[in-house]
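Ligand: iron/sulfur cluster. Inputs:
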Amino acid sequence: MPEKTQQRIVPLIDQRGKPHTIPVPKVIDDGQLQANGLLSDARGRPLRDLRISVTDRCNFRCSYCMPKDVFTNDYPYLPHASLLTFEEITRIARQFVAHGVQKIRLTGGEPLLRKNIELLIQQLSSLRTTDGAALDLTLTTNGSLLTRKAAALKAAGLQRITVSLDGLDDSVFRAMNDVDFPVQEVLDGIEAARAVGLGPIKVNMVVKRGTNDNQILPMARHFKGSGVVLRFIEYMDVGATNGWRMNDVVPSAEVVKRLQQELTLIPLEATQPGETAQRWGYADASGQHDKEAGEIGVISSVTQAFCSDCNRARLSTEGQIYLCLFASQGHNLRDLVRGDCTDAQLSAAISHIWTGRSDRYSELRGSEGSAPPGDGQRRVEMSYIGG
Ligand code: SAM
Ligand code: SF4
Ligand code: SF4
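Predicted complex:
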């Protein structure tokens, strides 16, 4: 049955769970609690990557993320006063960086819809890791506003960018974004990003069986040799509104197999621990990696869990820290920063939250896609905590 005629009844309620309240650490022994970049969680995983959602709104309605029938004009989007200000975000980010974060990704919703996002980028780009290095500062966007914004983002200090693009065929792409947005404008956005030196550029394609899997090969052909790294993402059971079914997932192994029918790919080593994508390089005639032709990546969040080295924390638009993409509750940092807590207390709170982390949803998910036993609460939406 075509996807658009399927009937689903999704109650229109606020998807955001009630956050854990974090007691403000009262007594701080600086000697003991000083951040030293070495924080690790209950499973020994370090804290390296912070994803910051800057808005819960988006101008697209991708069916796997913000289905149109749920995210209507009446949806209870966050009021402006609930959003963390840029100063609050930077203050929180500074403490995360002191605890070991090396990479910050801005996301959403659609991050380029947040007014004056360049000012936040400017503030974040001045932060330094515990080794004194610049942060790896990046942003994930649907690309719709990139032609207009690329130069200002670069000037503000953004280093690179990831663009989501689910197909090259215009009708397939318009159906995926579900707001009839033309593919050419996103391709122009990618060119604009390249022209101003935002690189290396990554392109993310979520693959949904029967919807855009016929775009796997055209996308690979298009980006081969372009310097853009194309990554295929397994459609995930994130949130509670997208009507996810295991049958809609195209496993990464199948994606690679389909590509190999036409293109010669060899596996490449991971560049860093905690990397979500498995890398495959295009091979030359002698079977070696042809660097000019480039590489692709596959992100197997469903069929091959990578929780064991997951080093990512997520800061929601309204200041909740989520320890897993599939969590139903966050930890309320906004109340701390809007209260009278000191930076040392904020740092101690982050330390307390991360050291207690044991999340590993994907590892516990059944091989057939069944959800692990949880706390019975609705999982938070991707558009709220970002991808
Ligand atoms: N709006 C921006 C965009 O689309 O790039 C940033 C936010 S979006 C939530 C971040 C990433 O999550 C996108 O690459 C998107 O394709 C991906 N995503 C959203 N829902 C997903 C799902 N159910 N499974 C896999 N990836 C998903
Ligand atoms: Fe918007 Fe990105 Fe979600 Fe698509 S994936 S609806 S572009 S937030
Ligand atoms: Fe990390 Fe949670 Fe994804 Fe596992 S399921 S990789 S813990 S975000």
